[in-house]
Target: PrsW family intramembrane metalloprotease
Amino acid sequence: MKLLVPVGVLVFTRYRANPVDGLLVGVAVGTGFAVLETLGYGFVALLASGGDLRTAEAVLLLRGVSSPAAHLAWSGVLAAALWHAHARRWRPRAVARLVAAYVLVVGLHALTDAVSGWVALVAAAAASMALLLWVTHRELVLGRRAVDGGPPARPGSGRPVPITRPSAPAPPVSPTVRLESDGRPSGAVPTDRSEA
Model:
């Protein structure tokens, strides 16, 4: 369900050339989803406990620590893989990477749902964040090397596609020049002695 928003952004916007854009969209979607899901769990705990705030607080604290980290990591990793596949024109290796990311994310989510207790949930969230940091490093640092003097990325090489940069800087904007009544720029020294 969370993948619908990144797919919509990929299809309907111009932000689709760089996998880092997908990573950012995925992290934003995952964070929003985690907040809503955590509030829902807290509300259900409050109702189920008959209005006991301590029970709802315990649920919100546990979910507030583990859920945002996990969901933003999972959505970010999956959206980055989706953008990568699009940037590689859906080549088999890029699609395989997308499928592997999906299987990994589903596995981590199933693991998080299967375990209970603070230590297990925080460990699963930490593992998810480590995965997100690795993907971020791969896309940002290794992708920059391909742009900033490293060997060029080849399609199908597993390396990020280089980000294109403009070839020349934009020309400077000229300051506004005021003209005198005779058409000379204000403050200009006359060149003809007859004008002096």
